[in-house]
Amino acid sequence: MLDKIKGVSEEIEQFQIDTKDSLEKFRLTFISKKGKVTELFDLLKQVPNEEKRAVGAELNVLKNAAQAKLLHFTEVFEQAASQNASSGKDLTLPGIPDLNGTRHPLSMVREEITQIFERMGFNLSEGPEIEDDWHNFTALNFPLNHPAREMQDTFFIEKNPDIALRTHTSSVQVRVMESQKPPIRTLSPGRVYRNEAISARAHCVFHQVEGLYIDENVSFADLKQTLYHFVKEMFGKDTKLRFRPSFFPFTEPSAEIDISCLICKGEGCNICKHSGWVEIGGSGMVDPNVLENAKIDSKKYSGYAFGMGIERITMLKYQIKDLRLFTENDVRFLKQFTFLG
Ligand code: 2U9
Known about the structure:
Its EC number is 6.1.1.20. By secondary structure, the chain is of the alpha+beta class. It has 12 helices and 10 strands. The chain has a 7-stranded mixed beta sheet, with helices on both faces. A 3-stranded antiparallel beta sheet has the order 2-4-3. The longest helix has 38 residues. The protein is elongated. Ligand 2U9 binds next to helix 7, strand 6, strand 9 and strand 10.
């Protein structure tokens, strides 16, 4: 019995207490109802009467040692806790996990689009969001009385009709044409502004990618092939493409770009309004007036241009039904996207 007491005594001495959890473990191991010290007291009944007094005395020494160690460390932790409380910190609280952020879906899709065109030899161009009338409208062949210039579509700066927030990134491409010589093969992604009421389908701030290719003998066939390649890369090789005649002041001829519906694969569903097709943007051959406005000889050079809304492409790709989700910054929405580009 004395050997057992000695063994437990050594265990108590060596027991490492460095956290509140290990303090509790110490209490359970030695002092609780099922603890080793209590168990030894239970064994005292079996000790012969003549030894009981001596063994009992040893057991009391053991119990006191265990309780003294428990008390000492209880005080140590209480003191530390009160110091932390007075310094406003609770070091016993669990740490804040270091969560990784995710890319915004618009940023991911923009990069996916630009990478596809970069692989086809397009470079990226940027320009100011606050533009003058020349680069946003006049150079792009907008007639003076064109409705897109009016207040309901355009945000003007301090009532100065010559300065506005750009309504498309074509203004960037006018600047590229003015400062570079053909061949030009450029892509301009960026934020654009239109004076529209905010709803699930429209916003006053959105993003576009526009492309421009100017060289000798550029034809509509080149435009078709470039967009054909883009659509297969972006939406999958089974996606179909069609061009629908349209009108833009800056291109002639002009065409809307439709792709076969990604949801029903052309069968007809709610997303494509049962037509089997969804619009992803517009395109056309750069109007000779636009080339001449940038002092590019329209007899020698021709070009194609196209434009797409990044929100629209993202909504189609991820089946997002409300445009406002892009700007609400709700992490439950944002954390669903991972970039694989
Ligand atoms: C230059 C000359 C021509 C760019 C083009 C479109 C057609 C077009 C819309 C798509 C959806 C804008 O975001 S949207 O609302 N764009 O339909 N954009 S051709 O034409 C240009 C660009 C630059 C110098």
